[in-house]
Amino acid sequence: MPKTLFILLLSVLCLIAPARPTAAQYGPQPGGNPPAGQPDNAAGALALPDYIKPGYQFLYVASSSTESDDPNKVGSAGMGFTEYTIIAVLKDKVLVNAANYLAPNGVPLTPQGDLDTNTDPRVQFSGGTSFTLGALEIQGGRALWMDVEQLKQMQGGNGVDVVRSTWPYKGQQVNAVTVTVRGNDSISSSTYLAESGAKLVDRMGSGPLRRGDIGANPYNRKYQSLMQLVETRQFKSPLIGAAWPDWTQRVKAMNFAGTYSMNVPGLQAPPVQMSLSISFTERGEGYILGKSTSQVQGNAPQTSLAMQGPGTALGYWVHPDVLAKLKQGQIDENKTLRTTLSYQVQDGNLGRLGVFVLNNEAQTFYAVSAYNLQTGALTYISHHLADTGTTIEYTLQGIESE
Known about the structure:
The chain is 6% helix and 49% strand. The protein has 4 helices and 19 strands.
């Protein structure tokens, strides 16, 4: 596993958390999957579209590449998908989570170069990140949308080009606005749906032109990336907008102990010890913020933003009443990614837990989040990649309260 991906997996507790354990007994069952809102907080202050609310999702196909400094060596490249979910809408910012899916064999394309949604991309869930978007990010084009009125009024000048045209999206031509910014050694552009403001395309090239390039393609630079919108949807589930357990009003931290192990035939490597601590520092009406600190034995700690809000499907807790009423079986399906999210009550070495499993048809990965049925606390998480045989597991050690 690449080191950057390894650190990412260790440092983040994602929206849909991680998979089948090696030591515990929670996860996918033999034979496949188990049998079958909250109001916005002063959203007008940020002039947001009405669809920007908890549980709304943007799915993008993404690719990036970097040219090697050594002309005799091949650079790096990757393709996959990113699913962004609106976690909470506050007076001065929007909380967002991004779940990343790698496509190690590349994203399937049609002969015309479009995404082939009829072919399984055989993705691997690879972790996620959380971030906030304030007024500066939204107005500056760094969000997943832009205000429709701002798009209507935007004019080019001072190194910025604004082009209004049609754009292909989901098999038809739609009205779009493309904003391009050029620098000395960089170029970036964002294309938006004119009617809704949703970002259709985000493209970037930076650094010097690649070796042998004469400048015909201004994006063909040392670093380049492309992100294209596949679909949007409002995720609907009893998990979205549900009340929180009473103990979460006093929680200061949740501490986990974990291991990283690799199942390689003929190799008996001991598991690597890890630790993970989630500390909560800011809370408000229906949301909480803090930081996640993870450490692999012998390495420096890594930190990232931690959050939970009304748009969180699976986070650090799920109300026991929701778990008790939730029907066992498939909860959600993404036909593009070929992934399913399922729920089942399972007995294991940690007792009886409510277990959520995220996996795909090709079984290239599976991920598990397991919750205490009495308290609702996230008790066990695991993530497994089939091609490398690696498994990352965490078990709750304790909860600190005020």
